[in-house]
Amino acid sequence: MLDELKHFLLIVDHGTFTEAARRAHLSQPALTASVHRLEGWFGARLLSRGPGGAAPTAAGAALVPRARAALAAVEDGRRAVAEIEGLHAGEVRLGAGATACTYFLPPVLAKFRAKHPAVRFLLREATADEVLSALHEGTLDLGLVVSDEGELWREDELILVASPALASPERAPFVTFGRGSSTRTLLEQHFPGAQVVMELGSIASVKGNVRAGIGIALVSRQAVEHDLSVGRLVEVPHPATPIVRPLRIVHRGLDRLPPAAARLRAMLLARRQPSG
């Protein structure tokens, strides 16, 4: 049934039998036969076909998250067994936000790679919502995100910064990240009505434009420590700052962590530094 579930999800994700068949390297009749077998097992019609493509029926929509969870669980089992049997040294898939990927994680990951050089590693930069969704779908093992749930790793201070040459920073517009990032969410919460002049995708581009005098930014203190120390940026005092946000380790449960991911979690927890 695993192949049939995979074929079903390919159709749901891509919207047509044609594209799903191409990605599955199957003929359309073979893909249709696979769907019919799945519908026979469940005793319900799972997909409806029309001029615009294919879409899940009510029964199909109910199956989608459970099919994803089932396939993720099988993959978890395969990886765990392979690691225990020594077929390979393991794999870790970690998701985190831009600041964590750039400033918090590199020394930890470097130490982990030095200790476990044969472990395959994937670090994905994403928003908290994207990381949590990927965990649910089984495409990530661990996340390090701003969240109310999970294991506290450390607290991160956000401050306002500007170029030392910027006149009247209190009236300057904001250079910030796109909507969906935790920093942007906190900016909108603590500075309602703030004028945003740039929406950027990386902390490096935010800092570069602030150093150029385009505007001010709300950023992690960790991300601007060096810039502040050499005078390329200055902290802008404000009653709303510093804003403290919790960075937490999230996963689908200790019993579902592959051995290599469990080792990385243990290393992260050994290095956690919550403030206050």
- The N- and C-terminal alpha carbons lie at a distance of 51 Å
CATH C-level class of the largest domain is Alpha Beta
How does the helix and strand content classify structurally?
Answer: alpha/beta
Instruction: Kindly identify the CATH topology of the largest domain.
Output: D-Maltodextrin-Binding Protein, domain 2
Please provide the count of β strands.
11
Shape: globular
Written as H for each helix and E for each strand, in order along the chain, the element string is: HHHEEHEHEHEEEHEHEHEEH
Count helical runs: 10
* Beta-strand share of residues: 15-25%
Domain HTH lysR-type: 1-57
Pfam families: HTH_1, LysR_substrate
Organism: Chondromyces crocatus
InterPro entries: LysR_HTH_N (IPR000847), LysR_subst-bd (IPR005119), WH-like_DNA-bd_sf (IPR036388), WH_DNA-bd_sf (IPR036390)
Key phrases:
276 residues, D-Maltodextrin-Binding Protein, domain 2, 10 helices, two-stranded antiparallel ribbon, 47% helix, 22% strand, transcription, globular, transcription cis-regulatory region binding, DNA-binding transcription factor activity, single chain, WH_DNA-bd_sf, seven-stranded mixed beta sheet, transcription regulation, alpha/beta, Arc Repressor Mutant, subunit A
